[in-house]
């Protein structure tokens, strides 16, 4: 039988809405790389009895039990005790662990607080997993095929411990089919549309299995290929990747873990081009996304967050009269921002955005868009780039009468400026800002070509 | 007996590391507002049998079962079927639901894809929960004290459905103790230090119970007060809040859901002050945080992302010689950036940051800091603000020899510029950027006073 795993995440904060559990998700992905499927995750509270019960339940289902959280120094950290209860053993004091904790503090010119001493206790019969990044040691237990590994809840400590010590151990014992997962990242069409384009390829009994997930405007297709050996699984997955490329064309922006900002960055770098950004409603979020990518300083040079009209005028050279005539949220101002940014930065490309992210703003229109389909976003195409060159096109409407979710995105290059209008409907501020960024990066991607 | 709840999240993507489950966390927080404790969350795959088993297990533990995910139109959406299996009933076609779905598409100038017809089926004996934001209707089942409510996995659809329809139903049946949760948000000391300051207040059998969670530099204390009536619970919680204020002083930056950016924004607004930002290594992230706050345009006017030396010189008026002498990552340049931004924006305050977020950069020092304690961050205080006024203080060192994680933060106001040096150790890019932003906002908060 193939090994499988269950993940138990411990902490009251996971059950009272205080903390989103990102650890279990990360561990699932990591376990997949060694073909150990996770059959379930659960979150439970800081309670010895609950911890014991959860381990019992998981132990009946899975060989490998990964636990995160509850190893800290405070009185609500009870994972040590829960494991001891499950194993029916006492906690044992390890002076050598206390020494390490003391050294950890000493290296920072601190004395170890008395509270941290509890971290030097482990259930009898378990061994310490070293923590180089914090004070909480992990706990490792193995008996026959059963493995229990408890790690700190702090993500970077957990990750280093898992990758450095636990994953190599699991690799040795993994004996199942090889799973290879490839991801195809799309933008510009909704989930249903993509599913219809794929047809039978998404059947549930197919191998590779193709799953579909949505994250704001990004649709990800997960191709999960299963075979007796890794190479076969890889070939099967690659075949599907090629098939999907043929079907989805430039709806595909990237593969695997690529972000839109990475893809755009690679294209800029490849063409030795530079980018400037002029953001109003997104308030720095596009710049943040671009600079999330290591090495982005090679193509991203100048960014402006021109949140006020004055900043648009003084920093980007937008004509005051343009703002007065059309309002700050207008295709005309967006266009002038992009042109101004490109000129001032001396860059090859510039993106500008201006819009109403809400919650304040008027309600001229209650039109919605699904937020998943570029075509939907373009239903007002009649006043987009083609017609923006006509001065008399838009009425002089004041910004406060414009609807929340109205956004203009402009891309400037050597040939001029293209501007598109989007209406992201009465969604929340985060949604509108994020979708604006995704569309801005996607417009630049399409402009940069292959 | 008090009602309690279990949450089942469905989707292969939750078990293979593709999607972080934020829904269950949000639902936990919401349930707490009506005093329904969540006893466990679990994530399972898109599999009818697994869904049925999970509902059976949850049903043995909890009266209220909330399910998210698996209601979409694609073949891997099997929640309808799983609930039908659990209830041992057939799926029934509802023409009126199909009509709604068709209308949803028609309003967007689309025909309903054939795939979506499956969403018009519900397990017999259950009723539709209307979805105004998407095509997937929810499923509601009630029998005696048992409630099963299935909602879409798309967060904004799920949230609207829960708050609009399910929460009011749950309010009616909630009969337990009242729980009141207050949160105290701290920055500037680590978890252990704060726990020691609180002492017995963190005992596990205390009511209110005080829990502690860490999110990068932010330490949150959760005060959970339990009483027979809401007013008593509120009074108990407030008493603890006051007690903790006395103990923690200005380590507390805010309460409940307040972010640092919100608190800083309120202080700026209250004092009718404006802010400009000049960011290098954080690449727009401080601006993003500031503008996450609705209404931030009232105090945030100008932002620069000066990722290149040229931008620092041309946009912020940093002397080229300063960069040549001290490097772009230096207290001197940080100081000049802040002064330049404040002057150019005509703002009351300006924040500037420059640093090495990595992964590239030298390795002059392998010094670490815990990233949770401001004091730790200041161990190199000897070359911070006090001494920055001495020109001969820093050697002329080239930036590439400086360690990853070295960051300078400056705050400019009418009196001048204060600059602090931080060393965030060999952590990852995201960590360094986020901690830089938190510290920058915190330095401004402390400067703004009460």
Question: What's the topology here?
Answer:
Two copies of one chain form a homodimer.
Chain A (H helix, E strand, L loop, with lengths): L4 E6 L12 H10 L5 E7 L3 H14 L2 E5 L10 H9 L3 E3 L1 H12 L14 E3 L3 E3 L8 E6 L2 E6 L3 H19 L4 E10 L3 H8 L10 E7 L2 E10 L2 H19 L3 E4 L4 H11 L4 E5 L5 H8 L7 E7 L2 H8 L3 H7 L4 H15 L3 E7 L18 H4 L7 H4 L17 E8 L2 E8 L5 H20 L2
Parallel strand pairs in A: 1-2, 1-3, 3-8, 13-14, 13-15
Antiparallel strand pairs in A: 4-5, 6-7, 7-8, 9-11, 9-12, 10-11, 15-16, 16-17
Helix pairs in contact in A: 1-5, 2-3, 8-15
User: CATH architecture of the largest domain in chain A, please?
Assistant: Alpha-Beta Complex
Spatial strand order of the main sheet of chain A: 2-1-3-8-7-6
Assembly state of the chains shown: homodimer
Question: CATH homologous superfamily name of the largest domain in chain A?
Answer: CinA-like
- Give the overall shape of chain A: globular
How far the N terminus sits from the C terminus of chain A, by CA atoms, comes to 46 Å
Q: Unreliable stretches of chain A, pLDDT < 50, 5 or more residues?
A: 362-397
Mean pLDDT across the residues of chain A is 87
Secondary structure tally: strands of chain A: 17
* Rg of chain A, nearest Å: 27 Å
The total number of structural domains of chain A is: 3
- What is the third-level CATH name, the topology of the largest domain in chain A? Maf protein
Strand content of chain A: 15-25%
Largest interface: A-B, 112 and 111 residues
Q: Helix amount of chain A, in percent? A: 25-40%
């Amino acid at each position: 039988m193939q090994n499988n795993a269950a993940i138990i995440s411990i902490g009251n904060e996971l059950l009272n809405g205080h903390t989103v559990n990102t650890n279990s998700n990360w561990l699932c992905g990591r376990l997949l790389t060694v073909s150990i499927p996770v059959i379930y995750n659960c979150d439970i509270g800081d309670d010895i009895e609950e911890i014991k019960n959860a381990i019992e339940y998981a132990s009946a289902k899975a060989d490998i039990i990964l636990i995160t959280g509850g190893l800290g120094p405070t009185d609500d950290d009870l994972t040590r005790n829960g494991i001891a209860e499950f194993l029916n053993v006492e906690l044992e004091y390890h002076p050598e662990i206390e020494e390490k904790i003391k050294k950890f503090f000493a290296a920072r010119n601190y004395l170890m607080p008395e509270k941290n001493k509890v971290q030097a206790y482990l259930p009898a019969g378990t061994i310490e997993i070293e923590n180089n990044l914090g004070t909480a040691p992990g706990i490792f237990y193995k008996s026959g095929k059963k493995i229990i590994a408890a790690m700190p809840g702090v993500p970077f400590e957990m990750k280093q411990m898992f990758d450095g010590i636990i994953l190599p151990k699991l690799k040795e014992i993994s004996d199942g089919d090889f799973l290879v997962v490839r991801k195809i990242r799309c933008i510009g069409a909704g989930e249903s549309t993509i599913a219809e384009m794929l047809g039978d390829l998404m059947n549930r009994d197919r191998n590779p299995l193709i799953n579909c997930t949505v994250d704001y405007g990004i649709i990800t297709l997960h191709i999960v290929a299963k075979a007796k050996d890794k190479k076969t699984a890889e070939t099967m997955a690659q075949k599907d990747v090629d098939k999907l490329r043929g079907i989805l064309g430039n709806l595909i922006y990237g593969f695997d873990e690529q972000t839109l900002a990475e893809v755009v960055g690679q294209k800029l770098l490849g063409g030795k081009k530079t980018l400037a950004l002029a953001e109003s409603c997104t308030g720095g979020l596009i710049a943040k996304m671009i600079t999330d990518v290591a090495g982005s300083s090679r193509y991203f040079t100048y960014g402006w967050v021109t949140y006020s009209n004055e900043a648009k005028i003084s920093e980007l050279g937008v004509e005051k009269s343009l703002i007065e005539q059309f309002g700050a949220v207008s295709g005309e101002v967006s266009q002038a921002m992009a042109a101004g940014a490109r000129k001032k930065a001396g860059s090859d490309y510039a993106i500008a955005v201006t819009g109403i992210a809400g919650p304040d703003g008027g309600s001229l229109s209650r039109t919605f868009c699904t937020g998943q389909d570029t075509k939907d976003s373009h239903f007002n195409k009649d006043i987009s780039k083609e017609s923006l060159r006509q001065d008399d096109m838009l009425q002089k409407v004041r910004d406060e009468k414009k609807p929340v979710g109205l956004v203009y995105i402009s891309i400037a290059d050597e040939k001029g400026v293209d501007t598109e209008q989007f209406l992201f409907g009465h969604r929340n501020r985060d949604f509108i800002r994020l979708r604006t960024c995704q569309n801005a990066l996607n417009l630049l991607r399409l402009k940069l070509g292959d």
